């Protein structure tokens, strides 16, 4: 039988704490899960440094990827199957794109990408199209299949309906991570009636739409998203750990550039330091490897690298205050000057960070195009943009909220050295 | 104020998915959590290789240790406080012992300890009594305090009541891990009414006892334990990953002994290979470091080490059959001979493993002394051993169940080389 | 010992599906629960006719009253105890008011009170102050105690802090019913982190306030409330059953007024029909008694009473359309005329009903005084009204939403009698 | 289209707290739910008097019947569909039998049937085969269909597979009630992995069997059952309320027999008192009607009837002691004599009650035939009786446990009348 249609003799199930069971019947999916590129996601945490704030958040991207796959599977097999607007040929494409949508993620992506100017979406494409086990399987389905999958994940596919299953304001990706991250952190936000939402999803030419009767479940989902962003994803303590991470990578790169001789050579980072993005090197870089370096680098001679690594490994994080440099430009300059005087390099030890979120938005011409609105399917088959029907969504629609923080090592501002007066000044400005 | 009595200005809470919140008010506890030895538990998974079977089981021992602390805190603060049989002086001792009971665990303890003849309980003692941040804090409470804590954890303390809170057939350790492991794996076993059990616990001279009215909750707990053992802890796929791990460590040690030149030197393992158990070296060895070696060793020249590492990293596990070598001695020898003929070293590729559990037992003179029975406190203040009151517990009491498996790489038994006939013979014996 | 301070020898616990356990240690509370007036709440459903929409919603006001008591108990015993702003003398007052706040509710209160012009709060007062078992117990505490309890429930007490525990925009009453009604209906709304809210409640002179750190939990609570109102409490099918109930009572009263001879005499209703509100008669009227009458009245000769009863008993409900008579006055008149022509009395068979809710509001001078705002307690001890801090609450604050429905028996609009043309006209106007 | 095959235009869903949603697509099922005989189940509590012990247990048989239907629907539609051993023609039969299996239940069945020598299974048959709305619908499917449904429910059908879905040691009935009763009482027993059990059920000629891989889920189910029996169903306080109920009915029947003139005539009971089992009369007797009588009978002149009714209505229950009259025959006689002397009729006020359960049993020739064993389907397609594979089930298999209680009104044994010495004697024998 054609490879794309082959089924496992006996369905395989993964016990999943969020969706109870993840069901696999397609040989293609089973084979993809077994590839080393996909197994690698076990070594990358879904929420990066969040486990340093919420100790339960130790779950991996492997976990989440299976979850997204399962949600899409339920949509296409239990809800879309048999509907005239749904092309059954798109089934396997949807499942593969769901499973692989995060396959290019690296360790602690946020900081990593920021420092090295990388983009995990690029790596996803390279994994799907390059010389990998994943590519071999997808090619076996059809020579054009890897390209199709990559286009869906990259949102350049003409098949907008399938794209919207994976990336839209109400997609399987978000529905999985909100629930999963709530489950593992243990927060009481993040709950909404996904079963209901799935049941009222309908395929339309350009995107998935939601039957009007499911509006309240969608409102709940949007509120969950809002709460999870501010309670979990943008938690200032998590960001403090991100700040450390970013500064460690930054310092290591800088030292390498300057020709510093590492006791523990950053072999795994060479190609990235040199801005050569070699897929095989990238794939070797997982969180275990990063943590290995952070640990051994505690013994490096460079005091900044070693201090930052020690802080990260032992969770000795920076403290923070509310601070918006744009509004308090002078104060910021003054602080930088004082830090230098105190012998604490502000480049690494006085770090501004902001987070910003838009809980939901309708389409605004000329802006980020991904913000496709959520459409309700009315009884008369008309489509109405969600915020026109929902008072609550209307109330928060397009309202961006931003949060500004300044991070610094409070413990280093208290000693009794000759610099005690400078430090006193700093503390007085920081009001700590 | 005395250090041992100091309270945090504002209670700290950890969001915990199992107990909802972990509450810390004592400065001593807060300080212990901040030590690097305790933070290190974040880098050691609670269930070792189980995440390769149940993908949710990625939680760390840090997680569990906080949980055990919280359970003991609830017992001593909410249930025991004010009872005449409870000495309030034992409160801090109980909390510290609970928090630190697993602090000596290494990465993938089971395999690690088996191969290197180590015992994590020894390391726990060394961490508590040696030159560590943990020891400094405990000593600040009282010069004798570290020793007291170590004795409770080591079960040599004369304070049997406190010992029984941490290690008995119904202790805080088991109550936490059953629930926690069920939560993270997502299995539906592992649930019992802990709130009820805590409420009916009573302090008695030699141990914690359970008021008779809580008997059914205890029955449920024992059944949970039974199910978790067979469904999760002894899962044959998890054991297959353990087998790989054990054989990797075994091989590395062997290569080192023979003077093999590693491309990636096992620096972190030297003292252990040499059977010098240096605490500072041990503390550097966490799962990230182990996984780093497994990953780089895929590129070692030694084909066995490299193959086993590749298998572990990519989750290419051995298959298994039911097999008890004690009963089928001849078949086992024959298999070993055939494996050798086929060029597959049976030392590493034909591995027998068994698991065995006793769900509950009453005291049997002359046997393992830790098996203290669970006592019910009857209305007339008499103590009765649980299995005399509970039909269900009586039915399973002392019934040991054992499971025997033989592991091997099924994929290597199928090629079409000149050895195909030998492999066919092997497959026929293994009935695969 | 003084009666007000007496404790049960052994704490009593009620297993509660929402709060897990309800704990009773005070003899006064135990005695109040045992009174016949309180036990009567077992025969009155918390959500009236909602069980005809959500079949799980069969829980009684007894259930809810214990829940409110338990929440207040946790606030005063676990959070307020020991705080200087909390007067421990108010403890028993708070517990009794919580337990008894709904004791005057009658069967299907909403319809019942509407038809007979009653007010359950009046009856609550009569039960607390009149010749009842409840009164006897409260008087035993202190001669003035019944009055104090009644004033707290009636919101006329000078002790505004205690009043706010039971009736404010974030009180124990709402926190219990949202969670309880969500639990029994099975909807996924209604969840919020009550444990967190309780922990951050602080007593202040005029009301309970919430520490700023709990703001997000409060936002979640307000959203839950919003969703529960529209998804459960104002569900149009539930209101359809309410419409039937109201019309049955209306008809029975009317028939009684006209001197109709009932086959099954409405003995239990006489005093109410005659607008004599006799406490002892009121207390006999529970849902079982009402359902008894509805059942036997199916056999009454009056066709309207018998038809409405049959419909209620067998859940043969009216259908509905969106309709606002204020906007479509002419259409409404036309419908009434056509119903009359068709021989279907519009008084009983063409019923307009509207529901309206305000999810949260801050204080608006000169309006309903009960809408006390929720105050956040900032770090600097300042109080800030919630909507000034919370974007989401600000967005929905003061936004009233109203829903208009017209109810009618669709089944009677389809027959083939001589009136078929009139009925066709009706159907065309109703667009059914 | 044929009535039996007609589908609703849009699937209807019931929100169910236990199974989340109950799905109805068949017109036949929808019509059956709408019948007055089925709606009547809303007025009969699933657990009779249990709500007087566990206040949450106020759920009706309507609730449970929908749940059993939903479980069978999932089995036949999601698991059996397409399997060669399953005859798709049996689908509607299974669904109807599931939905209607309890339709003949009366109010407080246990006591009711005991006093009047009735059998709800007889009434189920009469409702299905007699002149009812249910019968009309079933007949519309096929003239023979009512008979078929009745035979499945009555376990006389030749279609043993379908019978076993509804009544066997692991049937949809039990799986629903264990979970549902646990949910509403709030106890932590009653949980097992039903989703897993459903997935491993397989149709075989004579009954449903369970794939071996589901054995542990079945063990958990059997333990749940054991715990629910002893913790909930046989709870001595619930039985105390049952005792009252039984004695009320007993007394009313006796008074009627003796020609006592009731102030409130037991019109609804006449045919039953006269042992004429008239279906239409039976159907009018629901819990509301019974509670109506209990309430008005508080005012009857007969002191026993009035006292028992007052006790039931106000939950003033009898106390109990462990007592087995078979073993303590003399003591029992003595107590009866003393009760008489004290003027307390032992017939109504000294009541023995026992409960007994067998958690699981395999087939024992010549005994109750319904105890069909549970069979595991081994990998080699062989069937093995559960207790041969499961140590735990083997341990408790066939172990009957019995509990004996003696109930009496403790409050009446304490007065200071002339009979105080007799009462003292009684108390001394009862050891209270």
TrEMBL record, chains A, B, C, D:
InterPro entries: dGTPase-like (IPR050135), HD/PDEase_dom (IPR003607), HD_assoc_2 (IPR045509), HD_domain (IPR006674). This is HD domain-containing protein. Residues 61-178 form the HD domain. It comes from the Bacteria. Gene3D superfamilies: Hypothetical protein af1432. CDD domains: HDc. Pfam families: HD, HD_assoc_2.
